[in-house]
């Protein structure tokens, strides 16, 4: 046993050296709780396991300690013995205090809501507190000596006082090395995992101020890809994740990831096979940093370049830690200088990394060459055209980056083979014609300028094969078509009123236990076909409204209503497009389905609404899946969420002298903290609190004994909730656990408990199974009921068909109460 303060300092020292395994297991008194952050772990230990300020140290919480030895070579038993005897040296105590301070400051600097100017004040306050404590200790020590001298003891008070002052003076300002902004920056910049942004010259322009004209060198912030890769791959957990997740599917007919698509297979055949190949997906978007209602709000708008590593699963790349910063620049500088300087810098580094790469020493494989390639560029439609060098207007012809579509043809042709696709050879001809007419047309068949990314080996803009389904569907096609359908159902046919719709929506989200954050706002009005819904919705809100609208209004609409049938067809289309994996047959089916949907739309709303360019982009989705993998892997939703970090930083910093440099530096501080804390891992299971109960007290005692091979008198740990990544598995949630082989229908279950044995570290889901009665197309959901008598099953998290909980809704508006389960997307 050791005291809690020493225990905490020692664990923090290992965390700073990236030596803590994830998740952190408690293991105090055989506790099964696990945590992602050390702060939560310490709070748990101090609340539930700190008896008389003594805690038990367990070496399982320190990685790479094969002989149970610490950095100073002292074994666990010896170290604990020394702690008990209070024989730790003064230098060791000082190191513990510094470790506590470093941990505190690292967490503060990684928080986007904390201004950096506050941190030195916090350190000053801690120094003042420490100084007061030391002064009090001195007074008490002198008083004790005075009392001893009064009792006749021979103690040299002056000599002892001087010795005491000398020994404790170093604790008066324990955080002095972090007490200023300069010291903070110097300390954290020297950490091996920190990747600093660098200023790169955009170009020269002349600016007139106070009747004087002077040259101004515009710059942008760039974060080196090579340094970021070295920092990430230097983390053993991240490297193992890349090795585990980059393997393609064994089934040649399945497309579940970019590695299963045709482009990845072609690149694998051309690689040497010995090096570690890293694929990048680059994103660009413009972002406002100030209140748009104020004057000159666009002056400080910035352009952000991100990227993700395509070797990781698409579900992993949705978190902040796995979306990496590439460059930050002012939008006004982009308009003046163009994308050339930024893309030239990106192209130069990727060309070097793809041809030569860099070498690193890895724990298992030893020295290995790492090469980085560009897989694709994904943005919203306007930004994608701007980055790739195509026209940024969608009101004319040749607006598509994949084909030579015209506005007239896009209104009547709904299959990709009806259009002439762009090729690298024809693109070169367009660029040549454009260069020969510098004062002529602004573009040649949509090509406005040559793209610098074409210089990267293995990449060409005509073979980018990317489309953002968030902007194309959720912010384009879906709200437009929902508005058209609701106009006929509410205004023309008057099947229900707008107030009834809003009441039903509010009632549904009041009882739903999933997707609660996607609740759409109340609609103010239903516009005529072609108008936009009011108020406008976010992409996730629009998706949530479409997903559950059949359950909300299905009982008020006759089954043969043509507009409602079209709404169901739109729901099927969105479910298919957002599917996490495809087969070649599914891709062929989606091609026909999109053709049918566009024909239905033109048939129902002919003369009222014309097809938008985003409708045309739908016909390219099947080819994109075959070439680049599931469409969810190129959705910009993850990048749009990342923007919130920078916007919070802007609102907190309130210093726009060089906002790009400020944001880039703060993001890299967040990246350092993410690397140290293992935030990139999304398969970590964390449990906030659990309880230990005998097996015989549970109604499913026999099944637990048979599954785990334990006796009824043994103990198991249960909890009502756990987290894997950011997904919560909570009691009462419903999951898709299997597909019935004979009837080809899904099998659902409700989570009752999360269970773990006393000797194991893995958590299991104990679920109660439902019987699927069938699929009711009118409600776009499955009808289910609980099996009687109750039938339970124990599953691991990897046994689930889909890791997301699904919505089970009791529709009380029907003559009989019926349970409906709505899937998020198409699964098989």
As a whole number of angstroms, the C-alpha radius of gyration is: 31 Å
Gross morphology: globular
Strand content: 15-25%
Counting DSSP E segments of at least 2 residues, the number of strands comes to: 25
Low-confidence stretches are 64-86
Structural class, from secondary structure content? alpha+beta
| Terminal-residue CA separation | 53 Å
Q: How many domains make up the 3D coordinates?
A: 5
Portion in helices: 25-40%
Please state the average pLDDT score.
Answer: 85
Q: Given the structure, what is the number of helices?
A: 25
Write up what this structure looks like.
It is a single chain. The chain has 5 domains: 2-188, no CATH class; 198-389 and 655-677, no CATH class; 391-450, no CATH class; 469-634, no CATH class; 685-822, SH3 type barrels (Roll), CATH 2.30.30. Mean pLDDT is 85; it is low at 64-86. It is built from 25 helices and 25 strands. 40% of the residues lie in helices and 18% in strands. Strand 19 and strand 20 (746-757) form a beta hairpin. The strands form 6 sheets. Strands 15, 16, 19, 20, 21, 22, 23, 24 and 25 form a 9-stranded antiparallel sheet that branches. The chain is α+β, with helices and mostly antiparallel strands and 828 residues long.
């Amino acid at each position: 046993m050791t005291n809690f303060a020493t225990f905490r300092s020692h664990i923090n020292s290992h965390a700073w050296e990236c030596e803590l395994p994830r998740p952190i297991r408690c293991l105090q008194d055989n506790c099964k709780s696990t945590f992602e952050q050390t702060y939560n772990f310490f709070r748990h230990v101090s609340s539930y396991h700190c008896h008389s300020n003594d805690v038990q140290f367990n070496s399982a919480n320190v990685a790479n300690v094969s002989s149970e030895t610490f950095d100073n070579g002292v074994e666990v038993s010896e170290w604990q013995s020394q702690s008990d005897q209070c024989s730790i040296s003064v230098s060791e105590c000082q190191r513990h205090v510094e470790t506590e301070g470093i941990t505190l400051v690292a967490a503060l600097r990684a928080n986007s809501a904390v201004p950096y100017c506050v941190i030195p004040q916090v350190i000053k306050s801690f120094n003042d507190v420490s100084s007061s404590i030391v002064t009090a200790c001195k007074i008490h020590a002198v008083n004790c000596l005075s009392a001893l001298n009064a009792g006749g003891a021979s103690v040299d008070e002056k000599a002892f006082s001087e010795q005491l002052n000398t020994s404790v003076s170093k604790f008066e300002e324990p955080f002095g090395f972090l007490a200023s902004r300069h010291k903070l920056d110097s300390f954290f910049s020297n950490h091996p995992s920190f990747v600093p942004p660098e200023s790169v010259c955009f170009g020269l322009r002349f600016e007139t101020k106070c009747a004087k004209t002077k040259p101004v060198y515009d710059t942008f912030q760039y974060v080196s890809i090579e340094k970021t890769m070295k920092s990430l791959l230097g983390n053993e957990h991240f490297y193992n994740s890349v090795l585990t997740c980059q393997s393609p599917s064994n089934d040649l007919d399945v497309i579940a990831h970019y590695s299963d698509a045709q482009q990845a297979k072609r690149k694998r055949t051309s690689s040497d096979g010995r090096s570690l190949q890293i694929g990048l997906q680059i994103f660009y978007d413009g972002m406002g940093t100030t209140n748009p209602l104020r004057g000159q709000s666009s002056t400080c708008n910035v352009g952000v370049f991100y990227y993700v590593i395509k070797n990781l699963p698409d579900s992993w790349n949705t978190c902040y830690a796995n979306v990496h910063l590439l460059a930050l620049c002012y939008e006004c500088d982009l308009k003046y200088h163009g994308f050339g300087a930024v893309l030239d810098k990106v192209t130069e580094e990727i060309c070097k990394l793809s041809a030569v790469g860099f070498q690193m020493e890895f724990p298992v494989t030893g020295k290995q060459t790492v090469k980085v390639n560009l897989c694709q560029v994904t943005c919203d439609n306007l930004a994608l055209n701007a980055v790739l060098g195509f026209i940024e207007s969608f009101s004319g012809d040749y607006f598509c980056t994949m084909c030579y579509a015209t506005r007239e043809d896009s209104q009547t042709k709904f299959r990709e083979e009806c259009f002439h696709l762009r090729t690298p050879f024809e693109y070169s001809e367009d660029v040549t014609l454009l260069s020969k007419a510098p004062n002529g047309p602004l573009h040649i068949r949509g090509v406005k300028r040559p793209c610098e990314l074409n210089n990267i080996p293995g990449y060409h803009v005509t073979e980018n094969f990317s489309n953002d389904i968030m902007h194309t569907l959720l912010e384009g096609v879906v709200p437009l078509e929902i508005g058209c359908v609701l106009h006929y159902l509410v205004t023309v046919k008057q099947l229900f009123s707008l107030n009834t719709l809003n009441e039903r929506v509010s009632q549904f989200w009041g009882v739903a236990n999933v997707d609660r954050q996607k609740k759409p706002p109340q609609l103010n009005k239903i516009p005529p076909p072609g108008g936009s819904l009011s108020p406008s919705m976010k992409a996730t809100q629009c998706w949530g409204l479409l997903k559950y609208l059949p359950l909300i209004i299905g009982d008020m609409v006759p089954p043969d209503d043509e507009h409602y049938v079209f709404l169901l067809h739109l729901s099927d289309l969105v479910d298919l497009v957002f599917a996490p994996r495809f087969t070649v047959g599914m891709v062929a089916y989606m091609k026909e389905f999109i053709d049918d949907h566009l024909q239905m739309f033109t048939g129902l709303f002919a003369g009222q609404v014309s097809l938008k360019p985003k409708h045309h982009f739908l016909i390219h989705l099947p080819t994109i899946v075959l070439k680049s993998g599931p469409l969810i892997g190129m959705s910009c939703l993850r990048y749009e969420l990342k923007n919130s970090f920078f916007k919070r930083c802007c609102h907190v910093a309130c210093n726009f002298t060089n906002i790009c440099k400020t944001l880039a530096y703060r993001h890299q501080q967040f990246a350092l903290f993410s690397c140290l804390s293992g935030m990139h891992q999304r398969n970590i299971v964390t449990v906030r609190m659990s309880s230990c109960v005998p097996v015989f007290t549970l109604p499913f005692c026999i099944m637990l004994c048979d599954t785990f091979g334990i006796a009824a008198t043994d103990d198991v740990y249960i909890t009502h909730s756990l987290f894997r990544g950011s997904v919560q598995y909570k009691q009462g949630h419903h999951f898709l656990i299997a597909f019935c082989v004979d009837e080809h229908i899904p099998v659902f279950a409700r989570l009752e408990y999360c269970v773990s044995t006393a000797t194991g570290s893995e958590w299991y889901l104990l679920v109660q199974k439902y019987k699927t009665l069938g699929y009711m197309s009118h409600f776009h959901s499955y009808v289910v009921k609980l099996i009687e008598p109750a039938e339970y099953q124990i599953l691991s998290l990897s046994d689930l068909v889909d890791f997301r909980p699904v919505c089970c809704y009791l529709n009380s508006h029907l003559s009989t109460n019926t349970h409906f389960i709505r899937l998020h997307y198409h699964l098989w």
